[in-house]
Write a structure and sequence with these properties.
SH3-like_dom_sf; SH3 type barrels; PH-domain like; alpha+beta; 539 residues; five-stranded antiparallel β-sheet; globular; 3 domains; Dbl Homology Domain, Chain A; 14 strands; seven-stranded antiparallel β-sheet
Amino acid sequence: TTVKTILSHFISTPCPQTRALSLPFLPQLISDGSVVYAEALWDHVTMDDQELGFKAGDVIEVVDATNKEWWWGRIMDSEGWFPASFVRLRVNQDEPIEEYLAHLEETHAGEEDQAGLGLLLGPGLPCKEQMRTNVINEIMSTERDYIKHLKDICEGYIKQCRKRTDMFTEEQLRTIFGNIEEIYRFQRKFLKGLEKKFNKEQPHLSEIGCCFLDHQTDFQIYSEYCNNHPNACVQLSKLMKVNKYVFFFEACRLLQKMIDISLDGFLLTPVQKICKYPLQLAELLKYTNPQHRDYKDVEAALNAMKNVARLINERKRRLENIDKIAQWQSSIEDWEGEDVLSRSSDLIFSGELTKLSQPQAKSQQRMFFLFDHQMVYCKKDLLRRDMLYYKGRMDMDHMEVIDVEDGKEKDFNISVKNALKLRSLAGDEVHLLCAKKPEQKQRWLRAFADERRQVQHDRETGFSLTEVQKKQAMLNACKSHPAGKPKAVTRPYYDFLLRQKHPSLPTALPQQQVFMLAEPKRKTSTFWHNIGRLTPFKK
C-alpha cells in the first residue's frame, strides 16, 4: 500500500524525481493498448504547427511518451507534440495503471526505483511528513536556482551591455530587462528570510509561510516586469536580426558560464516564477497537518500569492486591451471630445438599448459601451449597419443607477417595461434606458455594479495608465487606419494553431526545462466577446 501511495504521488507531482520514476512504464502502458490521460498544469500556447496547444486543466490523451521531454498527445480532433513538464498524469486512470502499480509492488520494483523510494521516504518518516519535506526542499532549491539565474542576467548581460554604449542606450536596456535588477535585490532579501525559517535537520518542521506574508506587497513589483515583457520580446527580436547582437549575447552567456538557453528564455523566468508560487504553496498546504504551527500562515500565504498573481494577470490583461480600445475608438465616425483612454482602460459591457432623455423624451435606439468611469453611446447607420456614429457619453462617476419597475414612470410620464434610469448626482441629467427582455435589463444592472467595483478596486490597488501608454495605443490605432484609406476590419486574435498530419519532434527545449515554472490558467478576456456582435469586429 505504501509503494502504491508513493507511486501515485510520483504520477501526480511534476518534479525531476517523479519524472524519472513514472516514465519507465509509461511507453509500455501505451504500447499495450492502454489509454493514458494527462492533465495540463499550465497553458501551452504555440504558433508551431507541429505542437499541441491547450489550456491549464485540459485533459490530454497521451499517444506517445517514448521521448522524455516531448510527448505526442490528442485533444478532440487535434494532435501534436507538447512538453512533458507541462502536464501530470492523472492518478485515476483506468484499471491498467492500478495493475502496473500492483505489479511493481509485488516485485518490489527495480533497484533504481527502490533507491529512489528510499531517498524520498527517508528513515522512518510518516508519508505526509516526507511529502512536506519534499515540497519544502523543492521551494528552497528552486529559490536558490532562481537567484542564480537573476544574478547571471544582471551580471552576465546587463553589466556587459552597459559597457557597450555604442550598441545599447539606457532606454533600450530598460525596455529589454525591465526592473529585473529591482527584482533581484528583493529576491535576495526574500531568500535570506526563507533560509532563516528553513529547518535543515527536519525540513518538514520548517515554518516558511510567514516569509510570503511579510513580503506580499513587495511581490507586486513583478507587475511592472510582466507588463513590460511583451515590449522586451519585441525589442530583443529586432536586435537579434543583427549578427553583432547575436554574437554579443552569446559571448555574454559563455563568459558567465550560463546554461545553453537564449536570452529571451532567461527573461521569461520572472514571469513564470511569480505564477509558480501559488502552485508550490498549494502543494505545501496539501501536506501540512492542520495542527502544524505553519498551517495557518501557509493557508494565508497561498491566498495572498493567489491575489498577487491575479492582480498581475489582471493588469497585464488591461494593458493588452488598451490597443483594442484605441482601435475601436478609431472605427467610430464623428468622434468628439477626449479619448476613451484618457479615463478608461476596460470595457465592462456593451449592447443595444432604447434611450429617452429629458427634456425631449424622444425614443432613440443606441449602442451603449460601458467602460470604467464612463459610458459611450453611438448610433447605427441606417443603410450600413456596420457603421457607428458617436452620439455622446455619460460620466459614471457622477451617475446613480436606479432600477425602474414596469408601469408608469413619473419623471417621463410614460409606461415602461424592462427599464432602468441613470440620474446625475446633481439631478440635472436623467436618462431612461429600456431593454428588450427582462434578462437583458438584469445583465445591465450587474454590469453597472461591476463597473463601480472595478473603479474601487483600481483605487485600492493604484492601477492607472501612464500618458506614454495612452499615447502609444492611440498612435498604433492611427497607424492601422491611415488618413484617406478605408478603415481596416479588425480580425479577432483568437485564430492561431495550425494542424499538421506528419509531424517531427520539436527541436526547441521547453521553457520549463530552465525552471519548472509557468503561468497559471488565465481568465479569457471578455472584450471581444462583448463587442464581437458588431459587424466591424467580424472578419
